[in-house]
Amino acid sequence: MTTHTHELTRLTATEMSAKLRAGEITSVQLTQAHLDRIAAVDGGESGIHAFLHVSTEEALRTAAEVDAIRAAGGAEADALHPLAGVPIAVKDLIVTEGQPSTAGSKMLDGWMSPYDATVVTKLRLAKLPILGKTNLDEFAMGSSTEHSAYGVTRNPWDVTRIPGGSGGGSAAAVAAFEAPLALGTDTGGSIRQPGAMTGTVGTKPTYGSVSRYGAIAMASSLDQIGPVARTAQDAALLHELIAGHDPKDSTSLTGDVPAFAEASRNTEVKGLRIGVIKQLQGEGYQEGVLARFNEALEALRGAGAEIVEVDCPSFEYALGAYYLIMPSEASSNLAKFDGVRYGTRVLPEEGPLTIERVMGSTRAAGFGDEVKRRIILGTYALSAGYYDAYYGSAQKVRTLIQQDFDAAFAKADVLISPTSPTVAFPLGEKLDDPLAMYLNDVATIPANLAGIPGISVPGGLSDGLPVGIQFLAPIREDARVYRAGAALEQLLSQDAGPFWAQAPALAEAPESAKAAAHTAGK
Amino acid sequence: MSEISRADVEHLSTLAHISMTEQELEKMAQELAVIVDSVATVSEAVSGEIPATSHPLPLTNVFREDEVGHVFTAEQSLRNAPDAEAGRFKVPAILDEE
């Protein structure tokens, strides 16, 4: 890899944007640098495998278009979006015309969406070259990306460990400098927890802040698309681009999109009231995670923030409520994969070919273990005789959690916690223990149940592995998490420089393999 | 420990249209019992007084103009179909043999 590629891929999206506008670099150079990086580190046996599909030609075409507009100058050049020409990766749960959309499932192997998700339309209008689609746990169900039907994604900080999930591909791509920006989806932490595991920044916006049209639904009352980046400011810029009301998603928020990027440039925390959630620390949290968390608190206190403790007693039941509501909604949402209108159809090996039996064998072959587990669990929770005790109670817990947040935000402007109780664990460690895997989401789930925004920013390393710090804010106050996140980022990088500078170098594929990857187009 | 039998899972798999082998049914019954035990605590936390929340935003009656929007052609709609014939989805027998 050339020095030039190395330098270009290590810029922040904000820096890329400035250099593109100043004419110091072209989008074709920038996009090619990322495609080269993907070719160098994504393939092979111990490669990152963040991408399920790389869209070389399309990305370069968009890049050349931006360069041509810039070169011509005039009104069209002036009207370009600040992120025009900055490449981006898209989680493969979000549908794209002209690129396959698999949701990490065999069920959708080879499926080509006839339409773009609204967020993808926005990327195309703003002319961000789309590098490709990133790996995920099947239908976004998982916390490690090991439940993908297309193989695991590796953590760039230690390739024997998980990158988090379900958006492990988007987070790993950004952490491994294969893309400066990515889109993710967060139902119970799938943007924030991979952010924590890979030392990147990920935001779950307020529910409805970003249109969900074209995100393959898992749990519709919890799902939210959001930005993945290396800095809070980059995430804020991308969030501003993808946010806004969409008539195609009746749950999307109306009203103007707040100035998130501006909020991320205000790193003053003097007088900011930061609430430490009593229930999201202590038992179950690794020592190294708590050490970095306490250092973050000290840094914020030192900068003039007011640290208060808040009590959220109902959080004890959040995980239980989530693992009833999410599977219930998922079992309903995934009923559409019936092998009739799209996706795989698998015929039973014996017996009559009735639609019931074909559906049964199609879903048996098309879904992986975790998806089946959640569909069955959801079917159970919704069945007569259990509905009130399980689904009904879970919905009431949801109210209690919202009340806990209301009380907490009366005492604090933002709340803080570790994003995840542990650092990235070794691949395979929790694969046979679903409950241990679910426990990883304990700190991220409450925000989804309440619909509030949250961000994960890097809080340093524990034994060489990234620790994530989470900030939460009230509904529609996403700007606050960008301000707090950017402030912590600045406080922690004052002496040490940017966090990602500590990332280990990755093994690179030999030139011959890279050329092969290029021609194959993956 | 929650009592979830192999027969219970078999019934659920029929409702969910997922064929399962004997081995899968056994394994799923065990896993489900563990998971249900851990999530069942939610019923301890709540009383009848607490309203249920089904959605994070209190939205009601979201309306829009009833206008014809983008429409897919039959060809586009059928492009991903596992089987199609004469401009229609082709499905296995809807009714049982008897």
Record the strand order, biggest sheet of chain B.
1-2
Q: Helix/strand/pairing class of chain B, anyone?
A: mainly alpha
Percent of residues of chain B in helical segments?
25-40%
Strand content of chain A: 5-15%
Query: How many structural domains of chain A?
Result: 2
CATH C-level label of one domain in chain B: Mainly Alpha
- What is the makeup of the main sheet of chain B? 2 strands, antiparallel
Distance between the termini of chain B: 42 Å
Low-confidence stretches of chain A: 518-522
| Biggest sheet descriptor of chain A | 11 strands, mixed
Number of strands of chain B: 2
What is the fold-level CATH name, i.e. the topology of one domain in chain B?
Histone, subunit A
Largest interface: A-B, 73 and 55 residues
CATH topology of the largest domain in chain A, by name, is Amidase signature (AS) enzymes
Q: What general outline of chain A do the C-alpha atoms trace?
A: globular
Q: What does this molecule look like?
A:
The complex is a heterodimer of chains A (522) and B (98). Chain A contains 19 helices and 11 strands. Chain A has 522 residues and is α/β, with parallel strands linked by helices. Chain A has 2 domains: 3-311 and 401-423 and 443-500, Amidase signature (AS) domain (Amidase signature (AS) enzymes); 314-400, no CATH class. Chain B is mainly alpha-helical and 98 residues long. Chain B has a domain at 1-41: Glu-tRNAGln amidotransferase C subunit, N-terminal domain (Histone, subunit A), CATH 1.10.20.60. Chain B is built from 4 helices and 2 strands. Chain B is flat. At the A-B interface, helix 12, helix 13, helix 14, helix 15 and helix 16 of A face helix 1, helix 2 and helix 3 of B.
